[in-house]
């Protein structure tokens, strides 16, 4: 027979309460002198959650849609994201629940809470593996279509055992990720998040500067304003851009952890709006200047475009600055996404245990297991991009659009407005149609490429 201590009973949680203390004064402080997160710290943490790898995929998306529809879609994505976050926050307060999963459980029960947590875990794991793959590409290089693209460490120091992909990712894991993912409060990452946002702005500034110089010189022209639809396949392919835009704004899994640490919870709506405005500005600037600079040659990952001569003075230096700044940017995004991944996996596996912040052994073991899985995935899985596209069209859209809309339509507390219901139907219709089209297009592309290889 196990006897529970008073501390175990005190910190025992139900599925409705937060993975961490709901408010900074609910339990004994995890950090001495912590009096609650600031407005600016929360903005940087939420903005860093949003601006990850999406900044590299959006220029190609805008190229495919055309400049005008592309920018409209980015703005629409921000507006719909704000609406969906507002829904889960309002229904969370109505149900006295401090987690996204708790809001879903209040509306639909435990099965759907578990399904949401699985979606968040799948989405965040996929994102973090992709982040580590990109970091490896930047530092060590990669092969693409039989062509070797050298990483910055190989370019600077030639090939050695310590410039290999596995070694560099191991160093990054031990000396960068390990210290940053050891924090038990999301607010502890506010300074690295601010630096991460700053590095994203550096990328935008360099892209804009090079584009303006070449535009003045007359070596580039204006990009295509509208999409180029030549057949049925190209028409349906336009729908595959929606999951990319939705994934670029996914931050719902970190909204409640950030709110729970605030000094004043009433500021959360302004924090969300400020973060989305900042991120939308970065996305629009990146997309506009990226497509302006590279035109129809804009690659799916625009970072790959910075692997040659840009046609301006100090081109090689600018290429290195862009790649290094973006690589470090992803290193600093990693812990903020990992934070919510660990919390949701812990609640999924141990729904009635004490909060993970108060159980050092469980905190360490889950952290170690997740980092080991991500490291192995980034090093030894040959190609996860197709799988990542599927998760973007399913798990990400479910987390960002379907679950918030379903909560508002269910309206367990009678607080949904007519605008909430209209917005919910728009979210669901857009999510289902775009997901279906994106999945079908991805399957068609896979079978087409396989047929091409066999023939």
UniProtKB/TrEMBL annotation:
<dbReference type="Pfam" id="PF01490">
    <property type="entry name" value="Aa_trans"/>
</dbReference>
<feature type="transmembrane region" description="Helical">
    <location>
        <begin position="195"/>
        <end position="216"/>
    </location>
</feature>
<feature type="transmembrane region" description="Helical">
    <location>
        <begin position="236"/>
        <end position="255"/>
    </location>
</feature>
<protein>
    <recommendedName>
        <fullName>Amino acid transporter transmembrane domain-containing protein</fullName>
    </recommendedName>
</protein>
<keyword id="KW-0029">Amino-acid transport</keyword>
<feature type="transmembrane region" description="Helical">
    <location>
        <begin position="425"/>
        <end position="447"/>
    </location>
</feature>
<dbReference type="InterPro" id="IPR013057">
    <property type="entry name" value="AA_transpt_TM"/>
</dbReference>
<feature type="transmembrane region" description="Helical">
    <location>
        <begin position="276"/>
        <end position="295"/>
    </location>
</feature>
<feature type="transmembrane region" description="Helical">
    <location>
        <begin position="162"/>
        <end position="183"/>
    </location>
</feature>
<keyword id="KW-0472">Membrane</keyword>
<feature type="transmembrane region" description="Helical">
    <location>
        <begin position="363"/>
        <end position="381"/>
    </location>
</feature>
<feature type="transmembrane region" description="Helical">
    <location>
        <begin position="387"/>
        <end position="409"/>
    </location>
</feature>
<keyword id="KW-0812">Transmembrane</keyword>
<feature type="transmembrane region" description="Helical">
    <location>
        <begin position="110"/>
        <end position="134"/>
    </location>
</feature>
<dbReference type="GO" id="GO:0031090">
    <property type="term" value="C:organelle membrane"/>
</dbReference>
<feature type="transmembrane region" description="Helical">
    <location>
        <begin position="66"/>
        <end position="89"/>
    </location>
</feature>
<keyword id="KW-1133">Transmembrane helix</keyword>
<dbReference type="GO" id="GO:0015179">
    <property type="term" value="F:L-amino acid transmembrane transporter activity"/>
</dbReference>
<feature type="domain" description="Amino acid transporter transmembrane">
    <location>
        <begin position="37"/>
        <end position="423"/>
    </location>
</feature>
<keyword id="KW-0813">Transport</keyword>
<feature type="transmembrane region" description="Helical">
    <location>
        <begin position="324"/>
        <end position="343"/>
    </location>
</feature>
